């Protein structure tokens, strides 16, 4: 029965008291009760979930580059220690460092070296990650010098034909301004020059890789461990981008993966850290394509 | 007794409204407190009209991002609004009940597709298409406009449709009685009558377009230089925040909050304009 | 150029039907693509196991639970406050400067990018209120995010309820409270429901704000104080980092199916119990 009809009826029969009319409107009452019951049930279940206190565990937060590796480590650790609880959190290197500083997280993950105002934090290097400069497989160029790459990224060179390729505009891809990966690239490759503002910016290694894989004219840089057969890693001054070359130092582009904390970790956090730095933990990282600080000369 | 219940319900509503509104006020204040220091430090005009955004060298000019936001949103509006309003007219006036019961949930389904899925789909189909047929890297203002236009369709359609349906039947009946055709009725009677709702819908849609982050990050290219054409990559105010927020600290973070302030001001100007238009009925 | 009203009528009809067709085609292009790629991934194992090995193996059960809980918290908090505020603005206050300012602010705030809400939530709920990365932080942040939208659309829906209803109700001796609950609310409920459903959709689809507040932990959340990862987040992380495209499509497909079910349920509720007569 619609409200309008109801009102018309009431006007016709001159019903003064709306209460009677409302009683006729029973279905609506039932709906109200049904809806409020549902809400009540949901609220009660939420509150009971409240009372179930979170098991004390440790929180590791920060760099999205380090995150997948930390997750694998945590998974393995929780299998070995079933009542341990470790939560891995993204948010970015700076967010992770901030969280560690404020105590929101027990450990912070960083894919860059600490800045001056962060130096008061305790940190340890858990792995080294090579940096590969990648191109589309269809691109005939195999090798570039560091200077050429720097000139490409600063837009002094803008066409592939200037470095031995076909005539086409170079599509430069870089990481975002605060990325640890970008910081490493800028420090190691760019030197004094700046990356051109016309460069395309992407927010993750995978995104850069996918773009380069799709665009024959693109160039980018990603974690060495993430290079697969959809893209081609350039040789730098004749040195191939391989794990071994990073380890023996002939391939110069690499950056550290750090765990940071307010102070040297104790208790559960220390146990997890010990696992990460142990041979088993390091082997897991090596399997994933990273380099252990215990191998080779590193940098 | 009745008066008491009246008063109580009045007070209850007042409390609800006050708490909701104070939370909203809290956010505004928060953004301002975080963002104003950097604007005063860099200088308002240098910030808003500065051509260079380079936080690692202390340059905080957001003009390229303003251009990016404006062009992408404009493109989305040009592509999306006509289609959306036509579709809402379709649902309100032309569609038989059976068809509208299919189309309406379909539109709400569009509304609920996560923006990241839109962005990803755009990256897989729209970007390569632009790169192969129109040139450039494909990541461009055009790609962003197309994706945003699709994303704001459901918002505009749903609310416009509700506005059209809420019109009293007499408007239509009167128009038909005067001999107007269906289209004439819609054009000269119903649309103007529903104008406030439709404009509200468009503003809400544009607001969503301006505020969209994830999908745009994926298809726009995010270059910090001022775009020269719709095939160039660009960066909007929102994607600027989105890309760098997780990594930013100190002054850089303040600058991003300041970008948020600018966004808020832009949206406020938009809304003021909308209210001006609707009040002139 | 004088076009006869008949021709105009015909052209208009064609264009309008065409626009509806365009919308359907776009929807199908996106949805069918995702479903074709993703549905084969969905299995009992996919739904009940938690992600392993960065998400390459296992299922997505923890993300499903996470999504549901975060959305539930957000909607349960935001809807009463939003609708109540809308009622207050339209029924209890006179149209004046204050209500216009409030309406204006609500509209403006719905335009702020979700990432800014995410950052606010991170600094306020996660760190300042020490709620940590949790479902509660995420839900509260999303509640604040959808609040302006719910206020605005509810208010619009309530305002368009014909003035006649209110007049008659009052003349019959109904109090303000009775008028609101029994005459205005049932008529406006359709518009309000649309706003709330759009809000739910926004919550489930949200990524940026949730990463910074609810976290991105992969294990099954133990309570609303646990961190969690929502399906939208999971899809984004899997797809962008290139960890597992198959699982990514599966997650996206499941997400879309879930949201579709929510919409259908909400729609039938609104249609069945609300007066259709106009």
Structure description:
The complex is a heterotrimer of chains A (299), B (281) and C (278). Chain A is an alpha/beta fold and 299 residues long. Chain A has helices at 3-13, 18-24, 26-51, 67-80, 93-102, 146-153, 180-190, 205-214, 243-247, 267-277, 279-287; strands spanning 58-62, 86-91, 107-110, 122-135, 143-144, 171-175, 200-202, 218-223, 232-233, 235-236, 254-261. In chain A, strands 1, 2, 3, 4, 6, 7, 8, 9 and 11 form a 9-stranded mixed sheet that branches. In chain A, helix 4 links the parallel strand 1 (58-62) and strand 2. The radius of gyration of chain A is 29 Å and the shape is elongated. In chain B, strands 1-2 form a two-stranded antiparallel sheet. Residues 274-278 of chain C have low confidence and may be disordered. In chain C, strand 1 (51-52) and strand 2 form a beta hairpin. Chain C is an all-alpha fold. Chains in contact: A-B, A-C, B-C. Chains B and C meet through helix 1, helix 3, helix 4, helix 5 and helix 6 of B and helix 1, helix 3, helix 4, helix 5 and helix 6 of C.
Q: Count up the helices of chain A.
A: 11
Instruction: Supply the number of structural domains of chain A.
Output: 3
Q: What is the CATH third-level topology name of the largest domain in chain A?
A: D-Maltodextrin-Binding Protein, domain 2
Main beta sheet strand tally, sense and closure of chain A: 9 strands, mixed
What's the oligomerization state?
Answer: heterotrimer
CATH architecture identity of the largest domain in chain A = 3-Layer(aba) Sandwich
Uncertain stretches of 5 or more adjacent residues of chain A = 1-28, 50-54
Alpha carbon gyration radius of chain C: 22 Å
Which chains have the largest interface? B-C, 95 and 97 residues
**Gap from first CA to last CA of chain A:** 80 Å
Largest sheet of chain C: 2 strands, antiparallel
Number of extended strands of chain C: 2
Described by the principal axes of the CA atoms, the overall outline of chain C is globular
CATH superfamily of the largest domain in chain A: Periplasmic binding protein-like II
Q: Low-confidence parts of chain C lasting 5 or more residues at pLDDT below 50?
A: 274-278
Structural class of chain C: mainly alpha
Class by SSE composition of chain A: alpha/beta
- The helix fraction of chain A, in percent, is 40-55%
Average pLDDT for all residues of chain C: 81
The sequence of SSEs of chain C as H and E is HHEEHHHHHHHHH
């Amino acid at each position: 029965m619609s409200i309008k009809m109801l009102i018309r009826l009431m006007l016709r029969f001159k019903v003064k008291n709306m209460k009677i009319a409302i009683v006729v409107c029973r279905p609506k009452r039932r709906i109200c009760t049904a809806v409020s019951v549902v809400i009540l049930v949901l609220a009660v279940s939420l509150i009971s979930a409240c009372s179930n206190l979170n098991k004390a565990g440790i929180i590791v937060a920060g760099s999205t580059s380090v995150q997948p590796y930390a997750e694998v480590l945590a998974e393995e650790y929780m299998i070995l220690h079933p009542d341990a609880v470790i939560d891995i959190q993204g948010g970015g290197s700076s967010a992770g460092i901030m969280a560690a500083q404020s105590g929101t997280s027990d450990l912070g993950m960083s894919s860059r070296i600490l800045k001056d105002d962060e130096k008061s934090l305790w940190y340890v290097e858990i792995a080294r990650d090579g940096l590969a400069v990648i191109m589309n497989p269809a691109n005939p160029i195999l090798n570039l010098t560091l200077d050429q790459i720097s000139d490409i990224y600063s837009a002094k060179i803008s066409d592939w034909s200037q470095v031995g390729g076909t005539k086409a505009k170079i599509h430069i891809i870089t990481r975002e301004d605060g990325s640890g990966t970008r910081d490493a690239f800028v420090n190691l490759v760019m030197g004094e020059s700046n990356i051109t503002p016309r460069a395309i910016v992407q927010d993750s290694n995978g995104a850069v890789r996918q773009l380069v894989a799709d665009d024959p004219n693109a160039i980018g840089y990603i974690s060495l461990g993430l290079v697969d057969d959809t893209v081609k890693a350039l040789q730098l001054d004749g040195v191939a981008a391989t794990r071994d070359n990073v380890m023996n130092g002939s391939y110069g582009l690499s950056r550290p993966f750090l765990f940071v904390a307010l102070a040297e970790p104790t208790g559960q956090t220390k146990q997890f850290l010990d696992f990460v730095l142990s041979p088993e933990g390091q082997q897991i990282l090596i399997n994933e394509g990273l380099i252990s600080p215990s191998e080779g000369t590193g940098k | 007794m009745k008066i008491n219940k009246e008063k109580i319900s009045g007070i209850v509503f007042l409390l609800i409204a006050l708490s909701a509104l104070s939370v909203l006020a809290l956010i505004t204040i928060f953004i301002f407190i975080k963002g104003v220091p950097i604007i005063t430090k860099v200088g308002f005009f240098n910030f808003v009209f500065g051509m260079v955004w380079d936080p690692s060298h202390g340059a905080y000019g957001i003009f390229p991002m303003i251009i990016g936001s404006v062009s992408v949103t404009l493109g989305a509006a040009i592509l999306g609004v006509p289609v959306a309003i036509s579709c809402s007219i379709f649902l309100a006036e032309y569609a038989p009940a059976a068809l509208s019961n299919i189309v309406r949930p379909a539109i709400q389904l569009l509304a609920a597709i996560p923006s990241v899925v839109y962005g990803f789909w755009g990256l897989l189909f729209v970007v390569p298409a632009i790169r192969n047929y129109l040139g450039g890297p494909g990541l461009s203002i055009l790609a962003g406009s197309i994706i945003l236009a699709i994303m704001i369709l459901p918002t505009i359609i749903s609310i416009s449709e509700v506005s059209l349906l809420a019109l009293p039947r007499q408007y239509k009946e009167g128009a038909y009685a005067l001999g107007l055709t269906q289209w004439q009725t819609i054009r000269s009677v119903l649309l103007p009558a529903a104008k406030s709702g439709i404009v509200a819908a468009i503003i809400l849609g544009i607001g969503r377009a301006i505020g969209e982050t994830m999908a745009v990050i994926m298809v726009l290219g995010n270059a910090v230089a001022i775009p020269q054409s719709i095939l160039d990559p660009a960066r909007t105010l929102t994607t600027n925040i989105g890309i760098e927020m997780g990594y930013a600290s100190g002054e850089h973070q303040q600058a991003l909050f300041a970008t948020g302030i600018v966004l808020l001001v832009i949206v406020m100007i938009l809304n003021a304009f909308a209210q001006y238009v609707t009040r002139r009925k | 150029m004088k076009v006869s009203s008949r021709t105009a009528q015909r052209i208009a009809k064609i264009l309008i039907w065409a626009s509806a067709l365009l919308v359907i085609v776009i929807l199908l292009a996106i949805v069918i693509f995702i479903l074709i790629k993703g549905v084969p991934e969905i299995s009992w194992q996919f739904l009940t196991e938690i992600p392993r090995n960065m998400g390459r193996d296992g299922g997505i059960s923890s993300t499903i639970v996470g999504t549901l809980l975060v959305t539930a918290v957000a909607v349960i908090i935001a809807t009463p406050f939003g609708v109540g505020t809308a009622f207050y603005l339209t029924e209890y206050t006179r149209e004046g400067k204050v209500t216009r300012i409030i309406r204006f602010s609500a509209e403006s705030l719905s335009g702020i990018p979700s990432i800014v809400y995410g950052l606010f939530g991170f600094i306020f709920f996660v760190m300042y209120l020490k709620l940590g990365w949790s479902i509660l932080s995420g839900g509260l942040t999303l509640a604040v995010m959808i609040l302006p939208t719910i206020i605005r659309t509810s208010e619009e829906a309530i305002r368009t309820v014909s003035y006649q209803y209110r007049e008659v109700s009052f003349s019959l001796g109904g109090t303000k409270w009775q008028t609101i609950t029994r005459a205005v609310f049932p008529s406006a409920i359709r518009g309000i429901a649309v706003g709330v459903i759009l809000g739910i959709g926004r919550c489930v689809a949200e990524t940026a704000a949730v990463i910074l507040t609810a976290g991105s932990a992969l294990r099954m959340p133990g309570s609303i104080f646990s961190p969690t990862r929502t399906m939208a987040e999971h899809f984004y992380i899997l797809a962008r980092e290139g960890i597992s495209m198959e699982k990514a499509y599966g997650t996206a497909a499941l997400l879309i199916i879930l949201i579709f079910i929510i919409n259908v349920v909400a729609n039938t509720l609104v249609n069945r119990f609300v007066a259709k007569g106009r």
